[in-house]
């Protein structure tokens, strides 16, 4: 992809004039058309070792430095609040250049999955009539979000050629809607200790979204702690989240050892060994099994608003609720169901905008390695548009959970038999994707799935209203000034 480099005007397709980005600016004097692909670039300069900082410098050199933001210096909610307030002012001034720029605006976010989820949550909170679609640059360890939409999973190049090539892909990308999911956790206030999530040394971006609700929130209940948040890729609990927690804790304590993507992935695998998950039946008691800790209920379109019990085999030690076909560095735990058995169980291929989560279970780390084999997959447990986890009283004093790559240790009150985690469909957000990406939409007429041969048989083993979910939570500090009505921007 070098043809664009001979065109000196190529970067003008992406540049945004400074007057649009600076508060209280007057209508600009522009003698040319609005950029065809204006972008705002958000970069976590601490991601990818030194790559984040280098990528930030390159984008600042190639574009207007005022349209490139370091997430370590300024949160995305503050940036978007300022710029969309500017757009409102320009609309009052009948600035057609600014309005066309807003209509064509795209966002680029470079960082790990947690960073990408942070920006997605902020955009979701904005509730604009034309929310900008988002492209994700792989700059983490797992990079599941970028990989799912065709942007790759290896850390990117940071020189001019690599950035221009990525910008060309952004210009040519298609837009896809993906489901986002609301997660609620409620438990009685414990007699002793705290039940706040325990992060690896510091709170990840996605856990800023998973916060305790205020007393004035409609979801609040007297005598209970209620937490809420959301995710786009997956929520998991058990073995995989515990390994991830150990990895993140080690990386936070010794960041100098985690500057290479291959080393990071190797360390991740070693932790699975040292924690005994390859010999789980010997090293881990039955209390670590999902079925021992909790009961799982699901609701589908066929259940007419009634919860149904989901059978969890006694050997399952990790459960994943998956929205995108990318997990643990690009693996696909659901695979492609086929055959009569899957038809009878009403299992479908995984679409990213069908309002369904795929529920997959794993027995141990060896079972997880099955994903590396052709047609390998986890234990398909079901699909649902609502999922409810009800913990058994006193079954465990803690568990491990993970949202979109960010893990935490979750204390559980041992005297409470009402600890509940509930996942519900919230809405959709716009993503940018390459035309050959692995994520599929139910609305793509060309989307067809062919069986790649018979897969492993799974039979060898044993109301909340929309108003309640009005705010996704990732931008708790986000507040548009009262005098600015963003609903008028269209």
Structure, described:
The protein contains 14 helices and 17 strands. The strands form three sheets. The protein has a seven-stranded antiparallel sheet. Helix 9 crosses helix 10. The longest helix has 17 residues. It is globular and about 70 Å long. The C terminus is likely disordered.
In DSSP terms (H or I, runs of 4 or more residues), the helix count works out at 14
- The shape, in one word, is globular
Q: Structural class given helices, strands, pairing?
A: alpha+beta
Sketch the major β-sheet: 7 strands, antiparallel
Low-confidence stretches: 275-280, 366-374, 446-490
* Terminal-residue CA separation: 34 Å
Report mean pLDDT, rounded to a whole number.
Answer: 79
Total beta-strand segments:
17
In order across it, which strands form the biggest sheet? 6-7-5-17-14-9-10
Strand content: 15-25%
Q: What helical percentage do the residues reach?
A: 25-40%
Query: What gyration radius follows from the Cα positions, in whole Å?
Result: 23 Å
Describe the structure in brief:
The protein has 490 residues and is α+β, with helices and mostly antiparallel strands. It is built from 14 helices and 17 strands.
List the helices and strands and how they pair.
Layout: H1 18-21, E1 39-43, H2 51-62, E2 68-70, H3 76-92, H4 96-104, E3 106-111, H5 113-126, E4 134-138, H6 144-148, H7 160-172, E5 174-188, H8 205-209, E6 211-212, E7 224-231, E8 234-238, H9 239-253, H10 261-274, H11 280-283, H12 290-293, E9 294-299, E10 308-309, E11 318-322, H13 339-344, E12 357-362, H14 365-369, E13 379-384, E14 386-391, E15 398-403, E16 406-411, E17 420-433
Parallel strand pairs: 1-2, 1-3, 3-4
Antiparallel strand pairs: 5-7, 5-17, 6-7, 8-11, 8-15, 9-10, 9-14, 11-12, 12-13, 14-17, 15-16
